[in-house]
Every structure is written in structure tokens, then in C-alpha cells.
Design brief:
Length: 351
């Protein structure tokens, strides 16, 4: 990290036997934010941040296909959604071929399995790193062993990548601050986040009653992500249905505050619970990934006991950076907390 901080505009880093070339280190990725008293965040800053954050981020990235949002010239420039690369990837970047139902052929996905890849992504302007909910490698938590993702839809559905590691509840407030651009998404505001915190608490109570442990993090935008770690024994469609049933239960209990409505106009004033995020191909912002928004906010894991004391802009790349060395990660034991889910599904079916 010191080598990056002291380098000129370009540097070649030796990382675990791999050479990673980085140029334009002083390029501004996030402009200064006067209201936050925050200086501009450069590519150099971002690389140093990722090196420090790697021990927290990589466990959530390894063996997961990536969906990336790139801003090659910084957040004031053009945004590029990147799933499939049209360039030759460096040899240290892991990749996997996955059959596309829509296209009828395979697509190549990159994965981030090492620090060299994480640093290279920073060089490429991948300011938001999102990863699939499932992994390409079998393990002791699943009876499924097939890694045939590329031959057909049938083979894909029978493979390990069809089995997620967690159920995701994406809590997205549609309460407007009055500062939004015409037809824009709601801006971050205190009333909206206060409500989304209350809904997250209600969700936790339901999950607790089902004996399902859960974890929470800021999305890095306006909402929260709540995940239930599960053993990889149920496919996506089962995870999605369970999320939908729990969401419906919460909506019936709080009809004035919660919606599962797809029509955006009908979500106004409520928190949207998106159960349909639990499908193959969807992704979640990786814990500790920044977002391509003013201030460089970070999607931050938090302990449930701290939820009422936090606000999304409390966690920004410059102020999280110095804490990383001593930070206790509330999500560090996600794999160890995986739970059997079949009994809970059976209980719902008999209730």
C-alpha cells in the first residue's frame, strides 16, 4: 500500500506473483464534497482502500460471477454496466462460462478470487462491485456437485450455481426528499431511512420467530440489505418464494409502510421489498464496495445492535479506510452461520 501511495502516475505492483499495471493514479474517481468536508477521492486512494479492505471483501467475492459498474473516468463521466468483457482478461482473473437462457449460448463471466484481480478492477474503473448470490464451486453444505454451467438450461438448473448461499431482502425506501430530478429515484433522506430501519427491525423479528439468523448492511444508497445465510440445499425459486411469503406477511402487518408493488408509481411513501432479487443472475453489492455516488458511500456491514445509530453517509470510502485495520466485520462468519432451511419451509407449508 505504501508503494502505491508514494508512486508516480503509474506503477506496476507485484501481488502474489502477479504483475498488475496501474496508470493515471491521480485521476479523480469521486470529486470533493464540500458539504461533507471531504477531499476528492482518486484512483490511488481507491487502490489503497481495496488493498486494505481485501481481507473483508474477498471472502464475499471468491467463486462468484461478477456484475460491475464501471466509471473509467470517474463518477462524473459515463457509466458502463459490465458483465462480459470484450478484452483479453489478465491471466490472474478467474472466469467461468455460463449458459444464457435468453441468448441460447454461453457468456464468460469474470470472478474476483484474489487481490490482484481486486486491484485490477480498481484500475479499470469498476467503482461498484456486485456479486451473484451463488458460487461456482461445490462444498460440504450441498449435495449438488455439478459444475456444468455451459451446456444447456437444463444442465445449468441442475448445477451448483442454481443454489444460493443466502436469501436476500432488499429494502428500498420510496420516500422522496423533494430534491430529485424529474422521474428520478428517491434521494437519501432521514425520514426514508428511519422508516427502512423500522421495517428491517420488523423483518428481523419475523426471522427470529422462524429461528433464522440474519445479517444487515447498508446498501450504500438509500436502503438496507438483510440476508439469511442458508445451506445450499434449495434452488433459487424456493429462496425467492420464501422471501415473497415473508414479504407478504410483513406487508399485511404494515400495509401503510410496505409494498411489493412492481409499479414504481405505486411504491411512493413506502418501503419496497424486492423478493425477485433472489434469482440466478441477480447480484448484491459486495460488502465494503463503494457506490458510484457523490461522497463515495460504502455498502457497510453493521451489527443489528447498531442499526438505530447509523446513517448511510456515515460510511464513506475516506472515513472507513482508516478503520479497516482494526474493524471487526459483523459479516465475517457468514459461512459459519449457514442454516438448514427445509424445516422452516415445511413449517410454513403446514401453517
Amino acid at each position: 500500500m505504501a508503494h502505491v501511495a508514494q508512486a508516480g502516475e503509474s506503477v506496476i505492483l507485484e501481488i502474489d506473483g502477479h504483475e498488475v499495471a496501474i496508470s493515471h493514479l491521480d485521476r479523480v474517481y469521486w470529486p470533493a464534497e464540500t458539504a461533507l468536508g471531504q477531499a476528492a477521492v482518486t484512483k490511488r486512494d481507491f487502490v489503497c482502500y481495496l488493498i486494505a479492505a481485501a481481507r473483508h471483501m474477498l471472502p464475499h467475492l471468491i467463486d462468484r460471477p461478477l456484475t460491475l459498474f464501471r466509471w473509467p473516468t470517474g463518477v462524473e463521466g459515463r457509466r458502463v454496466l459490465m458483465k462480459h468483457w470484450e478484452i483479453d482478461l489478465p491471466p490472474f482473473v478467474a472466469r467461468t462460462d455460463i449458459f444464457s437462457d435468453a441468448k441460447g449460448h454461453t457468456d464468460e463471466y469474470a470472478m474476483c478470487n484474489n487481490l490482484a484481480t481486486l486491484v485490477w478492477l480498481a484500475h479499470m474503473g469498476a467503482l461498484e462491485i456486485h456479486a451473484w448470490h451463488s458460487r461456482v464451486r461445490p462444498g460440504p453444505d450441498t449435495p449438488v456437485t455439478s459444475t456444468d454451467f455451459a451446456q444447456s438450461t437444463k444442465a445449468l438448473q441442475a448445477s451448483i450455481i442454481e443454489y444460493p448461499d443466502y436469501i436476500l431482502f432488499d429494502l428500498d425506501p420510496f420516500i422522496y426528499a423533494g430534491t430529485e430530478a424529474r422521474r428520478g429515484q428517491p434521494d437519501l433522506n432521514a425520514p426514508a431511512f428511519t422508516l427502512v430501519r423500522a421495517i428491517a427491525r420488523s423483518l428481523k423479528r419475523v426471522l427470529d420467530a422462524m429461528s433464522l439468523a440474519s445479517l444487515v448492511k447498508t446498501s450504500g444508497k438509500t436502503g438496507l440489505h438483510v440476508v439469511v445465510p442458508i445451506r445450499r440445499t434449495v434452488p433459487y425459486h424456493v429462496a425467492r418464494e420464501l422471501a415473497r411469503v415473508i414479504g407478504m406477511h410483513l406487508m399485511r402487518a404494515h400495509p401503510e409502510a410496505i409494498t411489493l408493488e412492481w409499479n414504481v408509481q405505486k411504491r411512493a411513501g413506502k418501503v419496497f421489498i424486492d423478493a425477485n432479487m433472489n434469482v440466478r443472475g441477480k447480484s448484491m453489492t459486495t460488502p465494503y464496495s463503494p457506490r458510484g455516488l457523490p461522497g463515495a458511500p460504502v455498502s457497510m456491514p453493521i451489527a443489528w445492535r447498531d442499526l438505530d445509530r447509523v446513517y448511510p453517509l456515515d460510511f464513506r470510502l475516506p472515513n472507513v479506510f482508516p478503520r479497516l485495520a482494526t474493524l471487526r466485520d459483523p459479516w465475517s462468519d457468514l459461512d459459519a452461520r449457514k442454516q438448514p432451511i427445509e424445516e422452516r419451509i415445511a413449517a410454513l407449508g403446514s401453517g
